[in-house]
Amino acid sequence: MKKYNLNQTSGSMGSKFKISLDNTLLFRYAYFVSLILVPLLNYFVYGLTHIELYPLYHVESILLGLGFWKKPKSFLFLNLSVIIFVRLYFTDSILNVQNFIILFFVFSIGTLLSVELVKNYLKTNKKKLDVIISLAKTLESKDPYTRNHSENVARYSLLIAREMNFTEKQCRALYIGGLLHDIGKIGIPEHILFKNGRLTKEEFEVIKDHPIIGYKTMAHITSFIENGVLDMVLYHHERVDGKGYPFGLSGEEIPIVAKITAIADTFDAMTSNRVYRNKLNFDSVINEITINKNLQFDSDIADTFLKILQREGPNILTKQIDENVRRNLLIGH
Length: 333
Prior knowledge:
Elements lengths: L23 H26 L4 H14 L5 H17 L7 H46 L1 H20 L4 H13 L9 H4 L7 H7 L2 H9 L3 H5 L2 H7 L20 H15 L11 H10 L7 H14 L10 H9 L2
Helix pairs in contact: 1-2, 2-3, 2-4, 3-4, 4-5, 5-6, 5-12, 6-11, 9-11, 11-12
């Protein structure tokens, strides 16, 4: 089997727990837990050693900013007042206006800096939307067919991910990966890409390079490595029986996100007209997916998609994602 040594992205989604600044719910939980634990810990440690765990209250103020950056300043300042009051109450510090004002000023800096940190992070993340749209439009300008195909693959991938109870962050990544899975076709000669008929063996070998071309096109985008988008681009033509390309991976060697993109990609190909064949009817497509479980497709993912197809019926072919929902998926919050 040909070895993959471009980068170790396989299984990147979900394989590691990473804290992200857009995970405000996590920071909110941490803040409320710290409201209880920090004073208790400080009380016992201070009572035994007279050492005050002052930095922990700074951590509270930072968690407040990270978790509630959208809240008005009045909300933040009220919570800061609670933190300061608790700190003064559980130590021998004098609880007076002067001490309160000094601590309020110091803690406010940590909270407000945290708020600005999240805002700048999200502003940078929003710029990723421009990168994604630019890449997608580059591909669309070369092959108008690809726009509808990529949108459909993204939509079907999103449906599968939600049916499998993926997190919203993973769903966003799958949607983006669906949009960009064929980006490598920008490096395929047009006489092959637009050929009016079946490809020769030599031409198909050229087409088989598009996952690697796509990977190399976007390998510098760190977030695409971390969230699995590069896995979808590179591995969406692999098969669980090992007969896919470009590396002939099989079974668990193929990242789950790529397996989802693969079945979404194949479904849209079968339900679309091509220059060399007409689209299949809906029942025939369902039959093809069924008989290719554990061959071309992962069995669990195929069963999930079949469940969706049976529930939605042919209407799934024409349903579109609301534009506001689509924008939020691309921006990432």
